[in-house]
Design a protein that fits this description.
mainly alpha, 5 helices, 84% helix
């Protein structure tokens, strides 16, 4: 791959990553105070949105490489982060909320799979 193409791809990922990261940050700022589990609840919500969007994107018969880079890797990659999720679990446990941490963990996994499958199924239904 030429240096020019690599720079273009890097720019596409960055163009998607910036709004994804900003949305995650703002969700934490504005939603954490009003959602159950605080920051973990906000992370759960954005992770579910990202999982559904990635499921929808994955169901496309063909995905333009540029769209995959910007939306899939850039936007969804920065919107949904494993590290924030794990930090939330550790903080809940550290503050004596082990059952809440377990609940968020199980909800994240179960609802995340459902969200990805739902996004995938929604895209397939629209294609028919």
């Amino acid at each position: 791959m030429s240096l020019r193409l690599e720079a273009r791809d890097l720019l596409l990922v960055a163009l998607g990553a910036v709004p994804g990261a900003l949305l995650r940050w703002q969700a934490g700022v504005h939603l954490a105070p009003v959602l159950p589990f605080g920051s973990a609840g906000a992370d759960l919500l954005v992770n579910l949105i990202g999982a559904a969007l990635l499921g929808w994107l994955a169901a496309a018969p063909t995905v333009a490489p540029r769209l995959s880079l910007a939306l899939g890797i850039g936007f969804c990659g920065s919107l949904t982060t494993f590290s924030s999720w794990m930090l939330d679990m550790a903080l809940l446990q550290r503050h004596g909320h082990s059952l809440e941490a377990l609940a968020v963990l199980l909800l994240s996994l179960g609802l995340g799979l459902l969200a990805a499958a739902g996004g995938y199924g929604l895209r397939l239904r629209r294609q028919r």
